[in-house]
Amino acid sequence: MNKSERFEAIETFKNAYIQKIEEVSGECFSEASLFNQYEALAEIIMEKNGSLWAKTSKQYDEIPHKRVYLFSIEFLIGRLLKAFINSLEIEDIVKTAISELGLDYETILNKEADPGLGNGGLGRLMACFLESSATLGLPFHGNGIHYQHGLFEQKIINGEQVEVADNWLRHGYPFEIRKPNESVIVKFYGDIHYDKIDGVLTFFYENYEPILAVPYDIPIKGYHNKTVNSLRLWSAEPVEDFDLPSFNQGQFMDAVRHKSEAEAITQILYPNDNKFDGKLLRLKQEYFFVSAGLQRIITRYKRYNNKCLDEFSNKICIHINDTHPALCGPEMMRILMDDEGLSWMDAWRITVNSLTFTNHTVLPEALEKWPVDMLKLLLPRIYMIIEEINRQFLDKLRIKYGLNESEIAALAIIQDEQINMANLAVVCSHSVNGVAALHSKILREETFRGYYQIFPERFNSVTNGVTPRRFLINSNTGLRDLIDASIGTEWQSDLFALEELMKYAEDASFMEKYDQIKLTNKIHLADYIKKHNPVTVNPNSIFDIQVKRIHEYKRQLLNALHILDLYNHLKENPQMEIVPHTFIFAGKAAPGYYFAKEIIRLINAIADLVNNDASIKDQIKVVFLANFNVTLGEIIYPAANISEQISTAGKEASGTGNMKFMMNGAITLGTMDGANIEIHEAVGDENIVTFGLSSDEVASFEKSGGYRSFEVFENNARIQKIMQQLIDGTFGNFSHFQSIYDSLLLYNDSYFVLKDFDSYANAQRHINDLYQCPDQWFRMSLSNVAYSGLFSSDRAILDYQKNIWKTL
Ligand SMILES: *Cc1c(COP(=O)(O)O)cnc(C)c1O
Questions:
Q1: Most buried by CB count within 10 Å: which residue of 233, 296, 343, 477?
Q2: CA of 417 to the centre of ligand 1 (A)
Q3: Any idea where the domains of the chain sit in the sequence?
């Protein structure tokens, strides 16, 4: 675009924008509110998306390519407006036009709600996969739930987490399109009768409760291309909206009750991360979006394929993201047999060949097990089908594989009057994968060992990835521009090209610019901190950051206890000097997870103690930022020096926060767990700091015993001191932390916090030394950016295509 074209484009945009603001507000441009400014910008952008969206669908219909549907109970998409503007390559025009109109671009963008339709990594992964698929121009779409209320908003009051309902739809959401004429009915409860009709066993479903599933579509725009895919989110509504005058009082109340019972299904996102909470409403949610999604996909497929389903599994892949959508197996069987009249054998072949499954955790408390009675009552036909799948599968184990009864029992789908959803997903899918090399190994050798022995060909591994558009290009513009100016822009679509950056590893002028960008990002975060917390932090200190859901296995407690110990050191040795450190935390605890909430309270108690003690001369500051979400992450990741990835080895399936930090030049301080292992391999031993027990050591202690936390305590005076501080009134108003004390000593420290403490403290000291050599630190940081190519979700999608979905 030359100068006069640019000028022209800016003027055109200004006029369109003024007009749109007046249209949406009914006010003169100068009178319109900030929200009107945002609404108008969103609408202009949605119009641009809309025409590309229509064209993309048409192209997909004309050139049939295998389609993938990602079924997930969570999609944590983050804000969309800036991402759309950048992907359309009009940021310069829009930003300049808005500023020439005397408005502030960033302030307008900040009016957008951040849809919290996920808890953490699992939901965010799906959002990254959708973005990468659209950027690669692939016909992959999402299928999930249109939650009226997403994950709660977290406030910190007196150091404690307080939950506030998230009402993200309060002012409407400009990026979704409701499609009422594509609604379908989902059936719950009722009775099944069967009869032989013309010699064929036929099932009749009666007295069920119908719920209307209405889709809302959100465009997923590819970066710098014309592809727009869809994220389809289903909303529950009563089937018949009632007609007021015709109701007598009793009917009216019934109708109101029916309406709110129907709507309850998609009212709230369950706020648990990595924890099964067997509520009936949750089971309804799972079946609701599975059934609605599959019904629509099969209907559409038939329309374009002469009503013939023979080739379905060659043209469609249904991907089950963790076990929440595992009812895809029996629901697909139901549709193919009861609605489409296929035989069991044909339906089973199509089902297994269409479904693929990704496992996301090996934590036992996360494994979904639904009581048979609950499933039978809510979904009687689905239960019958599960029973039959189980019966046929166990027969096969007995006859074809010659397994004995105890081996068979371990692989059953129905165990102890419960449906084991992971087993159901494995049996119904032709591919099962873990999300990092170690996690996939644990699946093969432990979790799904028996399945691996009979179906080795089903097992795959794909290491997670994150989209560099959201987590580097659009959120770390300083670094983006420096990279563009140094090695060109190819890296934006091929992240492996970042390796070329290594030629600047000894370049002093590059280093100066690079360090300046990190400092600018840290100042930006310091400003945010100042606005939200009563503490001023030094941008020249080491920003050591742990942001993720609060969970015992992620060990925020290890980090917190180390800070307390470091503080004790400084108090005991007034002459001691360290590089100033700012320890930053953020993350939500599940509302019912008492221990995680105590960890938040402890971090805030330590912050209160440390931040207000002048005697340590500002050498350490501690910050807990409230309400971690994607938007806050976009400010935090680019500002980090240290990425805390300190889970108990073997517990974190992959992690994706680790990848976002790495891309932005933070150095990982981590255990050999999840994708940390692959980060270590990619950057080399000298560009990461690892510590702690290995996953084998953890597993061996868990299996054979041999760890006594009390012995560590007895032999370590420093640990004795911090443990004492938890219960001796050190924290004043914050009182005591007895449950933390007890879990570490009385209950033998299940997550090996005390066991790994020394090793972690040594790693921290090592970092303190490394940071004092600026050249070396720069090379370490740059290596992390340069070798982050493997952790792009573009690479992950290519792996899925090649090895799992067979779309390549
Ligand atoms: C990336 C991300 C996560 C996952 O972080 P981990 O460190 O991998 O647990 C969680 N929440 C949000 C908002 C994220 O962006």
A1: 233
A2: 35
A3: 64-79+114-464+799-805, 468-693+751-791
The three-state secondary structure class of 187 is strand
* Cβ-contact 220, 130 below 8 angstroms: yes
Please name the residue whose Cα sits nearest to atom 5 of ligand 1.
657
CA dihedral (335, 339, 341, 344) in degrees, to 10, reads 30
Please indicate whether the domains covering 64-79+114-464+799-805 and 468-693+751-791 agree at the CATH topology level: yes
Atom of ligand 1 nearest to the CA of 654: 8
User: What are 4-42's pLDDT values in tens digits?
Assistant: 999 999 999 999 999 999 999 999 999 999 999 999 999
List the residue whose alpha carbon is closest to atom 4 of ligand 1: 121
Distances (CA, A) of 677 to 586, 694, 793: 24, 11, 17
Protein residue closest via CA to atom 11 of ligand 1: 120
- Could you tell which of 273, 363, 656 is best to mutate to test the pocket of ligand 1, judged by most ligand atoms within 8 Å of the CB? 656
CB-side exposure of 542: number of CA atoms within 13 Å? 28
Ligand 1 probe mutation, 549, 554, 625, 642, most atoms within 8 A of CB:
549
Q: What mean pLDDT is reported for the chain?
A: 97
Cα separation, 750 vs 307, whole angstroms: 56
pLDDT tens column, 432-443:
999 999 999 999
Instruction: Compute the average pLDDT of residues 69-95.
Output: 98
CA of 305 to the centre of ligand 1 (A): 40
**What are the CA-CA distances from residue 223 to residues 312, 475, 478, 482, 521 (Å)?**
30, 14, 19, 20, 24
Q: Ligand 1 center to residue 574 CA distance, Å? A: 38
**671, burial (CB in 10 Å: exposed 0-12, middle 13-18, buried 19+):** buried
Using the atom order of ligand 1, give the atom closest to the CA of residue 628. 13
Percent of the chain with pLDDT over 90: 95
Pocket of ligand 1 (CB under 6 A): 120-121, 124, 548-549, 628-630, 633, 655-657, 660
The rounded Å distance from CA 122 to ligand 1 centre is 8
Inform me whether the pLDDT recorded for 733 exceeds 90: no
Q: Write down the H helix ranges in 265-322.
A: 280-304, 312-315
What distance in Å separates the CA atoms of residue 808 and residue 804, rounded to the nearest whole number? 10
Cα 629 to middle of ligand 1, angstroms: 8
Which conformational region is residue 199 in: left (phi greater than 0), alpha (psi within -120 to 50 degrees), or beta?
left
- Reported as half-sphere exposure (CB side, CA atoms, 13 A), residue 417 has a value of 3
782 to 69, 262, 477, 510: CA distances (angstroms): 37, 53, 16, 10
The type of residue at 127 is: A
Q: Mean pLDDT, to the nearest integer, of 621-632? A: 98
Protein residue with its CA nearest to atom 9 in ligand 1: 548
Distance 650 CA to ligand 1 centre (A): 18
Catalytic residues: 360, 548-549, 554, 656, 660
pLDDT tier, 405 (very low <50, low <70, confident <90, very high otherwise): very high
CB contact burial 91-127 (16+ within 10 A = b; e otherwise): eebbebbbeebebebeebbebbbbbbbbbbbbbbbbb
Could you identify the atom of ligand 1 that is nearest to the CA of residue 466?
1
Architecture of domain 468-693+751-791: 3-Layer(aba) Sandwich (3.40)
pLDDT tens digit string along 329-340? 999 999 999 999
Distance CA 541, CA 621 (A): 9
State how far Cα 48 lies from the chain centre: 28
DSSP E strand boundaries for 25-139: 67-71
pTM of the model: 0.98
The CATH code belonging to domain 64-79+114-464+799-805 is 3.40.50.2000
